[in-house]
Design goal:
30% of the residues lie in helices and 20% in strands. The protein contains eight helices and 15 strands. The structure holds 6-O-phosphono-beta-D-fructofuranose and manganese (II) ion.
């Protein structure tokens, strides 16, 4: 029982209500939690809910939709539409942003979300999640696509829900990153992980190594050094994890440190990365930075990027500060051509360190 512990509503009243549009933001985050509870209930039914398998439809990303992708999207859209707190929504599962129109009431925010992240995992009963980002809406009129293209540093709030053995809601309003666990019997989110801090160092990395032949040299260098362990230049062993569910991966990193990489690769020249800037990289970047971590493309801070398209993809490297900084340095050394010590004069035929 959680009596005496802080509920999400109480937390929001204390932490958000005083700021610009704060009461509306608090109410909006309670709406997010309501949609999350509905999706948690749906996904927990598994095959008994009749929403497993795939649909005929393909989303704008070219991915086959799952019934739960569509149901989760509907849960968010309906909640936001009824709530009167957003002027429009954009989602991974919708080709274009969706403006709120009469008879519904427009509010001061835009909501951008990935309703069911990692949904390839659903049929295997592996953790999935939802990711959301809240932006200010234009002061007047119906929001246009350009209104959604705000850099991540302008986010008002962001977070994710993780549908795992427990359902968790982790969010930031720019004052640290905080985690809430769903008490299913009572239906409340309870503050269980206040002020999460990502350890600055880690011995754990996450990357889909089946893409190795498409990586850039700095990523190959970093991963091969990790794999070389004690006998390599890092002089310590590393462990590897890959869940193929970004939410689960980021949550593990928030709990015990780690580095997550979906870097730039040459697999599909039309896509500079796999993950989407507005509803994956930006909200996760905000959450991770607020927990003392870093989020970068390898060359730029994620939250500094100026978006050009709603479904734009970017390289993502995030997590423990010192490891992300190291990989950013490897990118800089590669770009400057200083990353090949064995090509420097010291390593030449008569050099000091000839291998
Ligand atoms: O939404 C994209 C996503 O499903 C992430 O959750 C996950 O990190 C990644 O794609 C998995 O990609 P892959 O199937 O290439 O391992
Ligand atoms: Mn996703």
């Amino acid at each position: 029982m959680h009596l005496g512990r802080k509920t999400l509503s109480k937390f929001l009243i204390e932490n958000v209500s005083g700021s610009r549009d704060g009461a509306s933001l608090a109410a909006l985050l309670v709406d997010v939690a309501a949609a999350v509870k509905a999706i948690a209930a749906l996904s927990a039914k598994g095959a008994l809910g009749g929403a497993t398998g795939s649909l005929e439809s393909v989303n704008v990303q070219g991915e086959t939709q799952k019934p739960l992708d569509v149901l989760s999207n509907t849960a968010f859209v309906n909640t936001f539409q009824m709530g009167g707190l957003v002027a429009g929504v954009a989602s991974e599962e919708m080709d274009e942003p969706f403006p709120i129109r009469a008879p519904y009431v427009r509010g001061p925010f835009l909501a951008v979300f990935d309703p069911l992240d990692g949904s390839s995992n659903i049929d295997a009963n592996v953790s999935v999640g939802s990711i959301f980002s809240i932006l200010h809406a234009p002061e007047q009129g119906e929001p246009q696509t350009a209104d959604y293209l705000q850099p991540g540093q302008h986010q008002v709030a962001a977070g994710y829900a993780l549908y795992g053995p427990a359902t968790l809601l982790v969010l930031t309003v720019g004052r640290g990153t905080h985690g809430f666990t769903l008490d299913r019997e009572v239906g409340n989110f309870i503050l269980t992980h206040p002020n999460i801090q990502i350890p600055a160092d880690t011995g754990e990395f996450a990357i889909n190594t089946s893409n190795e032949r498409f990586w850039e040299p700095p990523v190959t260098r970093y991963v091969s050094e990790c794999k070389a362990g004690k006998t390599g230049p890092r002089e310590r062993d590393f462990n590897m994890r890959w869940i193929a569910s970004m939410v689960a991966e980021v949550h593990r990193i928030l709990m015990r440190g780690g580095i997550f990489m979906y870097p730039r690769d040459t697999k599909d020249p039309g896509k500079p990365g796999r993950l989407r800037l507005l509803y994956e990289a930006n909200p996760m970047g905000f959450v991770v930075e607020q927990a003392g971590g870093r989020a970068s493309t390898g060359r730029e801070r994620i939250l500094d990027l100026a978006p050009t398209q709603v479904h734009q993809r970017v390289p993502v490297i995030l997590g423990s500060r010192n490891e992300v900084d190291r990989l950013v340095r490897y990118h800089a050394e590669y770009d400057a051509g200083t990353d090949k010590p064995y090509e420097s004069p010291l390593f030449s035929e008569r050099g000091l360190y000839r291998p």
